[in-house]
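Field reference: sequence -> structure
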Amino acid sequence: MSRTVQQLFDLKGKTALVTGGSRGLGLQMAHALGEAGAKIIVSSRKADDLVQAVAELKGAGIDADYIAADCSKEADIRALADEAIKRMGRVDILVNNAGAAWGAAAEDHPVEAWDKVMNLNIRGYFILSQHIAKRSMIPNKAGRIINIASIAGLNGNPLGMHTIAYNTSKGAVVNFTRTLGAEWGPHNITVNAICPGFFPSKMTVGILEKLGEDKLIGGAPLQRLGDDEDLKGITLLYASDAGKHITGQWMAVDGGVSVVTGG
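Structure field:
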């Protein structure tokens, strides 16, 4: 007998690890998973931020905890995976969201800044996914991995915006998602990506000021920026049995910007 829509989206009994989960898009996605019934662990570098995030999640009736870790460091990543599995028994849903950006013209972009962005935005995704899969998802023959890419990984930049390392890393996340989805499909692990457009956040505040919020809104068919609800639906689709036949895919959540820019 087929399940109802409500049953397909239900995450009761599931566990989720969300990196970069102390604020912004990560915290929004943690809310989405927790509101659907999952037990949540959020992670980022700063424990003080995580304490506030967990208090907010618990205030919403969500079973939440935190682990501080720097996802640009392999030792931290492996410790994070081990501790998350120890606390929750397994990790059913992994959201790779921790990220960094750097603004500089390509001809002057520091190599060390390139390495910093790449280490966090793609190398960290690979190491954490690998460790969680080997320790939890492959043995359990089930898993959902959600990678946060960006519409910046689908095309070039508007004139005046210089983020070549970020764009390159997010383009890599899209193909990482495709490749991993194909390889781990036989283990019943789905791997999908979300490509957000412009959302007001600590990371984007400088770009919004430089390019002009009104200009960015005017370039979006829906005439708006993303808000604190706009990633909830796609996150829940990818994480739940409602999306069990979707893998290796990406979805832009950008108000239609990629439609008119050719992404």
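Note: The radius of gyration is 18 Å.
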